[in-house]
Amino acid sequence: MDSQAASSMSDFSDKDRKELQQFIENEQQKSKFQTNVHNLTDMCWSKCMTSKITGTAIDKGENSCLENCVNRFIDSQKTIVKQLDHMGGRA
Amino acid sequence: MQTIQHETNVENARMLIEKINEKCFEKCIPKPGSSLSSGESLCLTNCMQKYMAAWNTVSAAYITRIKSDPAL
């Protein structure tokens, strides 16, 4: 935000400012979520879609592979953070 | 506010297109020839649909996980 936009923030009422802040927080969260989904889809596509593409539908095996991929990635992340914690490092 | 929302959506779409292009090119055009064959075109069309379906599956699984795991 440039200084001109920042100074004009003071022209808003408290209620408006709070509302705007909430809106921006929501958008940031949405954007972060979408970025995470893009990265997960990228990784899990490489791991799960190994056969030739013959149609547009995801079969049962691919579907469960994708779901497992998402969950195991989060498990890995949690395990690594926990390990780092034990090492006394800051994660 | 609409501008911000619009920007978020545009960025999301841009990212999706970039990923589809990368993944489907890799999958459908293993050996680039002098032009796209009809088979390669068909593969790209299918792959695109399939990638979006995969995105939705991953998104749903991620949401389920976030909801069931309060630590996240």
Write the layout of secondary structure elements.
The complex is a heterodimer of chains A (91) and B (72).
Chain A: H1 3-8, H2 14-48, H3 60-86
Helix pairs in contact in A: 2-3
Chain B: H1 2-28, H2 38-68
Helix pairs in contact in B: 1-2
Give a written overview of the molecule:
The complex is a heterodimer of chains A (91) and B (72). By secondary structure, chain A is an all-alpha fold. Chain A has 3 helices and no strands. Chain A has a single domain (3-90), classed as Mitochondrial import inner membrane translocase subunit tim13 like domains (Helix Hairpins). In chain A, helix 2 packs across helix 3. Chain B has one domain (2-68): Mitochondrial import inner membrane translocase subunit tim13 like domains (Helix Hairpins), CATH 1.10.287.810. Chain B has helices at 2-28, 38-68. In chain B, helix 1 (2-28) packs across helix 2. Chain B has 72 residues and is mainly alpha-helical. The chains are: A mainly alpha (91), B mainly alpha (72).
Brief summary:
The complex is a heterodimer of chains A (91) and B (72). Chain A is an all-alpha fold and 91 residues long.
Q: Care to count the β-strands of chain A?
A: 0
Approximate helicity band of chain A: over 70%
Unreliable segments of 5+ consecutive residues of chain B: none
CATH superfamily membership of chain A, which one?
Mitochondrial import inner membrane translocase subunit tim13 like domains
- How many separate domains make up the residues of chain B? 1
Total number of β-strand segments of chain B? Answer: 0
The CATH topology of chain B comes to Helix Hairpins
Number of H/I helices of chain B = 2
Question: What is the rounded distance between the termini of chain B?
Answer: 28 Å
- Helix-strand makeup class of chain A: mainly alpha
Name of the CATH architecture of chain B: Orthogonal Bundle
Q: Which structural class best describes the helix and strand composition of chain B?
A: mainly alpha
Helices and strands of chain A, in N-to-C order?
HHH
CATH class of chain B: Mainly Alpha
Mean pLDDT of chain B: 94
Oligomeric grouping of the chains: heterodimer
